[in-house]
Amino acid sequence: MSGLFDLAGWSQEISAFVSGILAWIADLLGGWIPWFYDVANWFRSDAVIEFWGFVIAVMIMLVFAVINLLVVLWMERKLYGRLQDRRGVMVPHPWKKIHKGTGFLQNLADGIKLVMKESITPRNADKSMFHAAPAIIFISSVMAYAAIPLSTTFVLADLELGLIFIVAMFALSPLAVLIAGWASGNKYTLIGGMRGAAQMLAYEIPLLLCIAGVAIMAGSLNPMEVVAAQQRTSVLGIENWYFIPQFIGFVVFMVAILAELEKLPFDIPEAESELVEGWLTEITDIRFGLIFMSKWMKGWAAAALVVLLFFGGWSGPFFPQEVWFMIKTYIVFAFFVWIAWILPRIRIDQILKIGWYELVPLSFATILIAVALKFLSHFGMGWF
Amino acid sequence: MTKLWINMGPQHPMTHGLWNLKILVDGETIVDAEPVLGYLHRGVEKLCERRTYNQIIPLADRLCYVSSLCFAHAYCLTVEEMMDLEIPERAKYLRVIALEMQRLTSHMTWLMAIGPDVGLITLLLYCLREREYFLDLLQLQTGARMNQNYPRIGGVAQDIPPNFEHKVNKIFEKFKVRVKDYHKVTNESSAFLKRMQGVGTLSVEDAIAYGVTGPNLRGSGAKRDMREHDPYEVYDELDWEIQVRDEGDSLARFHVRMGEMLESCKIIRQALKKMPDGPINVKAPLRPEGQSFRRTEDSRGEVSYYVVGNGGESPYRLKVRSPIFCTMNVLPKLLRGVNIADVLAIMGSIDVCIGETDK
């Protein structure tokens, strides 16, 4: 099925429509004041329509990101509630004080609560860096959404090196973790920040090597191309989703992306039982909220990355592409939640050992497998 | 690298209660540790000197809020010995049932607390779910969920309701199934084993030298249980086994407690079958004279009371030996050289209760 939502085209049309109205008003005004005709022409020019079309596209993506964040957060709460033999969030309702329901608005209520909290800057903190860190984290995780395609048409920036861009945005946040940990002027945050840096080094490398393995198979670093390659190289009518030929890479990628997200078995930078809240200890009010939001935004982006690389992106029968993509990402995200709430936190030295001794060699193996498969395909053997 | 003192407490997620663990870290490794107590000191021993013998029972309940019945019972046992009081057979069985039920709830609390310690909040909610069952049973028998004020000098406060045995059997059957769930998320998961295995190893010589008692001592390989070696009430008439592990690490202490929970179920079932009919209370003298010393097995270790009466309405002197206060001494030895994250696994397996530590 084709895409349901043509982001670029629709936003251009919206932009052209709004510019048309504005130009019409300017034309009317031109009857009194002649230079309004120039304004009307300016509104009609291609550059203006294109620019505002792009801004509208960004807005649509941002709205999607925020609504999706609410869904994902609510989903995690409900899922782990059920896992723990509870019902999860239920209560909040805008006007009825009822004690049943889905509790979907709980996240909004939490956000409003965090906005109303007092903003505290510790006396020992390096103030500019302390305030910059949450912004860096939030901006980097929102920017990752720019390069994630939901279908062949619903994409903001169709980059040649889209996968590299997404991973680069992921890699920015551990830097901010280190900054926040150092700048807070607190012992817990310092240890948390250092742990974040150590974890980043150990897990960025296998993550990138797994993506390299997939890129070798697909012959491109563009997510669109990767999905197209998975659809193209089908065996007996079944699409060749890369989690089968690249199974080792898939497993390594799942572990590394969990560490990248600081989800629970790997959330040692903010190990709440030993370091209070790790690098987040001193961060209060909506800055904490922004970091909290960006964690789940990155969570969905990571699920999307897994789907793009290993589960054939939006390909599937009957439903439109966007629907398939969302279904797959939510299933992968549910898997993340399941892992996070049933495993205890691993110790820092064990995490580094897993990263350096197990994941890095295995990810080299995935590249070897990818190259071997590619080599065989040149001689007409293998799938590709 | 420079060394750094870090306070874990008095307000810290690691502390179950109000105390402070100061650790000197070099990077992630702990060089030295120092437990600081005294935030919860109430002067219970001194308070006892101004209260009558019966007024001390609720005060002894408050020593440990998780296994309050054990402390109240140990006190009653000591005073009864001082008075040369023989309590009715049925009261002894009722006490054993209540004590073991309290041990079950206490161990459930420990298992619940070890979950968040190692980052497994799901375990906390599973355990809280089953702890409710045992608290319900305890409430049926004693009338309260915590601070029961159940034992009396010369017997117990009240008898069990008529359909108690049926309810106990039903809940224990359910519990046996649920224990498998705990094993699935704990010692059958390699991530949990990674955190617990080989962490905080305590040799049996050290454990005895530092005065460690209870499940922590049995986890180190010493087969020592006051219910067996200095029997009180009717423990010597019942058939049960001491849980011992030789490894001495956090996982061994974990297994000892998990085993003890099932043993407690066994004891309660037997006691309910064997329990004779009869009175549950005898009259106790108001102004006893003499002195006595008794030790019992609390859910955390050995509790002993020393009571001196001089013929007045209240004891002349009362001394409590609480197990975790003595176990705290071994902490610097256990924590030296381990990782920061291991503090949680070690403290969780030791099962700290500050109420009794800081009397």
What would you say this structure looks like, in words?
The complex is a heterodimer of chains A (384) and B (359). In chain A, 67% of the residues lie in helices and 0% in strands. Chain A is built from twelve helices and no strands. With 359 residues, chain B is an alpha+beta fold. Helices cover 48% and strands 13% of the residues of chain B. Chain B is built from 15 helices and eight strands. The longest helix of chain B has 29 residues, at 89-117. The two termini of chain B are 39 Å apart. At the A-B interface, helix 7 and helix 12 of A face strand 1, helix 4, helix 5, helix 7 and helix 14 of B.
Architecture blueprint of SSEs:
The complex is a heterodimer of chains A (384) and B (359).
Chain A: H1 7-30, H2 36-44, H3 46-83, H4 106-116, H5 127-143, H6 162-183, H7 187-218, H8 223-232, H9 247-261, H10 285-310, H11 321-342, H12 348-378
Chain B: E1 4-8, E2 20-26, E3 29-36, H1 44-48, H2 56-61, H3 68-83, H4 89-117, H5 121-142, E4 151-152, E5 155-156, H6 164-185, H7 190-196, H8 204-210, H9 215-219, H10 226-229, H11 250-274, E6 289-297, E7 302-310, E8 317-321, H12 323-327, H13 331-335, H14 340-350, H15 354-357
Helix pairs in contact in B: 3-4, 4-5, 4-11, 4-14, 5-6, 6-11, 11-14
